[in-house]
Amino acid sequence: MKFFCTLLFLFIYNICQGYQNDILDKSLKKDTSTVNALNIKGYQNRLTDPEQTILTAKKSAKIANLINYYEGLAESYRVIGIGFYYLNQRDSALNYYQKALELFKSKKNEIGETKVSNNIGNLWAEIDYDKALEYYEKTLVIARKRNIKELIAGSYLNIGNAYYRKKNYSVALNNYEKSSQLFNEINNPIGITQSLQNRGVIYFSTNQYDKAEKLLLEANEKAKIHELNSSVASINLNLTSIYIAKNNFLKAEQYLQEGKAFAKLVSDDKRIYDYTYTNYELEFKKKNYEKALIYLKEVHDQDSIFYKRNITSNINLIQQTLKQQQLQKESELTIEQQKNAKKLSIATAIVAILAFFVIFLLVKTNKKSKNSNDKLKVLNEEVSRQKDNVDKINHRLEELIAERTKDLIIKNQKLSEYSSHLSHQIRGPVATLKGLMLLIEDDMVDSNEITPQIVKCVNKIDEQIMDINEALNDPTRYHLNKNN
């Protein structure tokens, strides 16, 4: 019973745990979606209300930080930096861009890094054109590699801005036209508006007022439709200058007042300063010298304040950049040290493994050598034993050879004696027998008389042969003669 109760409890627990995980996953997805939505909203507000951009992105950053959504947090920092950029607070913008860059790098998000690089280029656009171009061109390379049309178009736009400031209008116009084509392809209203405005500025700078007016009026209309307040303020400033150049003071006044209102709406101090100076130009062109003088004095006062603020901002930007570069170098040094430490650890591990392998081989070789030695010892013992056996056999063979040699010597001696014996002992009876046979043949004697002599000779020969045979087969006899 207890067993079944335990199983039931585990089953219910797993269901509840799974349900809880589903809720957490859905909640997390919802939170990340919220972060992304807030970042998009903040970015879209950059031209209408940059202060709202900062507030929205900070809210997004807070949520992203709570749920450890670091890529969302990096984008939040980037959008906050953009907000400060449009408020002309470049040192604050750079600070947030660097935070974003570090997070994007830690997550190996190349697109995020590229966007931040583009934003940092914008900070340098009014200080160091070549430095700004470095950032823009780097962005363009990666944007092309990844085929991100919006980023490619933005890069062309920014590169055009850099060449415009360098007064290389033909190159600037070429880049603006490329950006305009891409922004129209992807139907990006902000990009389309900025491209129209920038092309209009190029034509104004080259005294082609009609072309400039047409493009800027179209840009003004689109900016108002999409509530791009900062763009309206900037476009109207250019339109005012065109109408002043064309002596159309009524329209110049109209666009000046409208643009100044939009500049105040987005708290763009630099643009407000530009409008004050344009007011002076308008009154001077209208020959209202008294009003022109008032505006000139106001320009002088604003110029002093704005110049100081701009210098301070530039110094802060440079200091912040140097500080960030130093931190980056220290970070790179730390990373390099970590890489070296890692390499050292890997090398140490490899050496340890090799040492272990060598020790293993040595132990194995030693063991093998010991086994070989044991086998050799056994073989040596066997060889020694076999040698002893061979020595014994050799000794026995030597004894046998000695015995055989002795026997052969005796037999040779007996054979020699046999030969001699044959020559002396048997030859005599044979000769006698032969003589007797001759006497018989010649009938010199009677056969009856000679028969006993023949028998005696034959017996003598037989006795000698028997004696010789016995002597040869008797090893105890060394001579044929019994007396010897």
Automatic annotation (TrEMBL):
Where are this protein's TPR repeats?
Answer: 74-107, 153-186
- Coiled-coil regions listed: 362-403
Keyword field: Coiled coil, Membrane, TPR repeat, Transmembrane, Transmembrane helix
Spell out the Pfam families in the cross-references.
TPR_12
> Which segments cross the bilayer?
344-363
Record-linked PROSITE patterns: TPR
Q: Which molecular function GO terms apply here?
A: phosphorelay sensor kinase activity
Q: Which domain of life is it from?
A: Bacteria
Note the InterPro entries from the entry.
HisK_dim/P_sf (IPR036097), TPR-like_helical_dom_sf (IPR011990), TPR_rpt (IPR019734)
Report what the protein is called: Uncharacterized protein
